[in-house]
Write a structure and sequence with these properties.
Length: 83
């Protein structure tokens, strides 16, 4: 009980979603897509279809960037000569 009372955010984070934190990208991308499409669309025809497409594009871009960074760090950085 005392450990819960001494909880300091950002210094001692809670470990509730530690194993699945990357899944929070989906609701984040969905929220960004909903707001962006609501502000930028002149009509609301096919609104949800556009929101879902944009959500998929954001998630796919983040996955592609993660793969590029993994390749960069795991493959290319060890090839750099160290003196």
């Amino acid at each position: 009980m005392t450990k819960l009372l001494a909880y300091i955010p950002f210094v001692e984070p809670l470990h509730a979603l530690q194993d699945w934190w990357y899944l929070l990208l989906i609701p984040l991308a969905f929220g960004i897509s909903v707001i962006y499409k609501a502000l930028r669309s002149s009509t609301l025809d096919h609104y949800w279809q556009h929101v879902l497409v944009m959500t998929g594009q954001i998630v796919a871009a983040m996955i592609a960037l993660a793969l590029v960074l993994v390749i960069l760090v795991q493959v290319l950085v060890p090839l750099i000569p160290v003196e």
